[in-house]
Amino acid sequence: MRRIRAIAKYLRRMPFHPQWLLPARDVNSVIPGLVGKVLDVGCADRWIEPRCSASAQYIGLDLPVTGKGLYASEPDIFADAARLPLLNASVDAVVCLEVLEHVSYPQAALAELARVLKPGGAMFFSIPFMYPIHDAPHDFQRLTEYGLRRDLDAAGFDIVRMDKLGHAVHAAALLLCLALVGGLYERKSWLDYLRMPLAAVAVLIVNVLACAVAWVTPDWSALGSGYEIQARRR
Length: 234
Prior knowledge:
By secondary structure, the chain is of the alpha/beta class. The chain has helices spanning 2-11, 64-68, 106-116, 145-155, 168-187, 190-216, and strands spanning 37-41, 57-62, 77-78, 91-97, 117-128, 157-165, 226-233. Helix 3 (106-116) packs across helix 4 (145-155) and helix 5 (168-187) packs antiparallel against helix 6. The N and C termini lie far apart (41 Å).
């Protein structure tokens, strides 16, 4: 499984990959600066851990179905983000990347993250916006910038920064590329295998054209692939 993921990660750098235009999260400029106890909610294969500073105490948390079943890793804690088995104000920082869309009760999860964070503690958070259903059936919502601001404020967080991820043209092209190939992987009839090379060429054309168009077109704040947020516990 890890070898397959490594190959997929390499291919993702190529313009014929349908997710080539998916923007990367800015983890390398944020994660090394987190200190103390760092709780990684939805830790998957613990890919955040090697990016933490040597002085940080990393704590990985995930559900058995993903942390152990999907990624074959061993979180330090198996738990639901909306019911954290941790004491009040017991961690210094929280990382929660591409998780909230998979939580049945997102407001409850944000309240729990605020509860376990020390006052002034940092949270690094991301969530998709213009992106297809994934990890079904555990994909429950997308939130706009204003929905995120509402829920973070209600949970007791002050937003330090909120960045839209991806140019608007890139976000639209990403959806088109995924639409071109999504049905092929879902059905997998013998005819679909013949269609795959044509889909790869179409994806390549869309990606290259999108890059050219985005270079000459102003970005649009209303459309992006997701949001990246830094916040502090009030």
